[in-house]
Amino acid sequence: MIKKILIANRGEIALRISRACKELGIKSVSIHSEADKFSLHRKFADEDICIGASSAKDTYLNIPKIIAAALITGADAIHPGYGFLAENGQFAEICEKNKIKFIGPTRKMIELMGDKAMARKTMIEIGVPVVPGTEGIVDDIATAKKEAKRIKYPVIMKATAGGGGKGMRIAQNEKELEELFPIAQAEAKANFGNPGIYIEKYIEHPHHIEFQILADKFGNAIHLGERDCSIQRRHQKLIEETPSPFMTPQLREKMGEIAVKAVKHINYEGVGTVEFLVDKDRNFYFMEMNTRIQVEHTITEEVTRINLIKKQILAAMGEKLSYKQSDINFMGHAFECRINAEDPYSDFAPSPGKIESLHFPAGLGVRVDSHIYAGYDIPPFYDSLIAKLVVWAYDRDEAIKRMQRCLDEIVIEGIKTTVPFHKQVFKDKRFIAGTFDTHFLNDFKMK
Questions:
Q1: Residue 369: band (very low, low, confident or very high) from pLDDT cuts 50, 70, 90
Q2: Could you tell me the end-to-end alpha-carbon distance of the chain, in angstroms, rounded to an integer?
Q3: What is the pTM of this model?
Q4: Quick check: 197 and 138 in contact, CB under 8 A?
């Protein structure tokens, strides 16, 4: 049994985890930087401890400080949330060495699937379709040219340890490859401490479809449906929905079976997400696996009524999965809008500062996950996500109308936010019709 969980994160996800702990009767410990001393994520935990000043590397990425905080407070488990150390295999191993349960997969699993090049090789071995590309890391430009010629342009360079769109560059020809390859390596090194790059065929106008996975240590695994994450800016998701308007029942069943097959092959435990690119002809290709909870897990919870954070904790405690695939029923349609402290009229420039007034929408089928309040000062040191606005309805049309209503009700004054952007998207004819892909924002202009 886990009795006390230290939450190695901040903001809305830390608050989300502490709520799940309370519902499970487990004590929670929040950590915070001095810059986060007024955040709600620390106010609602059972205990709280400050681990440093402001920068992420000195606080939420500082493994010794986090382990010390767990030992001082007597926490017997650590939940990493998403981002920061959530997919850091070394952190998972250090937790275990200190007899602290890491709520997530083992170091071996994290590194197997977290290393994008290694994950590709694993998927190829079990017959999962992958985007044509290199079998491993490409170390030099000469090899990059040779591989790109074999794969055929356009190609995309990706950081093997990456995520969030960082360390990704698209080359249409050899000249662009020569120019962008060292840039991609440098960005990968700066963001992830690993300059490793692999190369794939660039799929033009794809849909980004991910499947939520839930598994236990006894070899049982199921999927909880797909999420369409195709509304992106610079490879960073802004709006997610489930089910996808692009999917067919047959494709959903086939991709779900493949996703489950993949996680069973590696004996995966806990929650995870298998991500695919689906081309215009509905051919699908494995892209990567995220060995953690996702920002957008909320919409899956809405259509399945399954609390994923609680299930993640219970899986870490060794509980057997209580569902079979046939038990999962999907009801209705859900959207999530990521509300960021950014100015959509100025190329989404960060907009930290004091929130002077705040009103969140409410009503049937409305959920807001957030750590902010009127008077809260948003620090400039971390990710700009300040709230997740989630709606559920019986069908997509009703869900769109509900989100439009909620976006009209939301009030956040004192800073710039992405609310005007979301309002415009949810009135766009292409979006309403469901005829969009990952290039939707290429010709999208704020009015």
A1: very high
A2: 54
A3: 0.90
A4: yes
| Residues catalogued as catalytic | 292
Q: Phi, psi at residue 280, to the nearest 5°?
A: -60, -20
Task: Please state, in angstroms and rounded to a whole number, the distance separating the CA atoms of residues 244 and 228.
Answer: 5
Judging by DSSP bridges, how do beta strands 47-50 and 366-370 pair with one another? unpaired
**Domain 4-103, CATH class in plain words:** alpha beta
Instruction: Tell me the average pLDDT across 91-105.
Output: 97
Letter for the amino acid at 270? G
Q: Looking at the domain that runs over 207-443, which CATH code has it been given?
A: 3.30.470.20
pLDDT at residue 166, as a whole number = 75
For 140, the token pair is 């030099």
The fold of the 132-201 domain, in CATH, is: Dna Ligase; domain 1 (3.30.1490)
* Pairwise CA distance, residues 244 & 337, whole Å: 15
Contacts of residue 170, defined as CB under 8 A and 6 or more positions apart, other chains included, come to 154, 155, 156, 157, 176, 180, 202
pLDDT of 164 reads 64
Beta strands at 155-159 and 101-102: parallel, antiparallel or unpaired: unpaired
Q: Which two three-digit tokens encode residue 403?
A: 């989100």
- What Rg value do the Cα atoms of the chain yield, rounded? 21
Token couple for 444:
């999208």
Q: Is 374 exposed, middle or buried (0-12, 13-18, 19+ CB in 10 A)?
A: middle
Domain with CATH 3.40.50.20 in the chain: 4-103
